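This part of the workshop introduces the protein records we will be handling. Backbone structure tokens are a discrete shorthand for how the chain folds in space. Once this layout is familiar, the rest of the handout is easier to follow. The record below serves as our worked example for the rest of this section.
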Amino acid sequence: MRTRRSHAGAGGGTGFVGRALTQLLRSRGHEVTHVSRQGGKDRISWEELSRCGLPLCDAVVNLAGENVLNPFRRWGDAFCREVISSRVETTKTLAKAIADAEQPPRVWVLVTGVGYYRPSPTAEYTEDSPGGDFDFFSRLVSSWEAAALIPGSPARGVVVRSGVVLGRDGGAISQMLWPFRLGLGGPLGSGLQPFPWIHIRDLAGIVCHALESECLQGVFNGVSPSSPATSNGTFAQELAAALGRPALLPVPAWAVRAVFGAERAVMLLEGQRVVPKHTLESGYHFIFPDLSGALKDIVA
């Protein structure tokens, strides 16, 4: 999918990251059709996709997935099934549509997560590092990525493992802004845990780069180059500084576990040092490589 006018199908295209990607692709002259719960203008439903197949397109992206860290949803079997289905089943549906298409797309991109890598205060992970087999979330990423495989397909397969996505109007920042604006923000737990992050414009940019670069395939880490040196405490200080507020009130680990449950709390109280090695080698140039610049852009 070169920078000539092309057509992309996007599962989850109306969500937080999907809106940013759609805006970027359309600004570069590409058409975008969303796959979502309901059909409409420039969109088809998942049911319609299963019944009628994939519309003619040059690229397919899946960004679909229920928000794992929704504080209003209790962590239990029903929510677990929803988290899995919203990722694995939507990916299977798109992969089957691609496999069955008379004229398949040239590229198939799946956005997953750095939860694939085992949390560690010291280990650094590149795209070649092992993982995917030690807890619910790592196994979820493995199942998610396995669902995208289409043996014998001519479509280039790309996986972008995303860190915490920072941006306006959604994602992690939207839940943190008001406490920090009121001077009530601070690190989670010890604050020493790594904080793998990426600005939403860069995550959209990496996906667009993968769509338009005919030679790219395989796994790319969707994290900022400075992410491996960022801790949760550093993030809290930088966000407070961008807002001109203090970050003096750490949130104790027990409180995080009480809100999210022990299994989900691991995602917030532990972290991974993830390096975007293949992403940088692919020629992608980050718009926001540093945290301070990313946060100033978001809170401006």
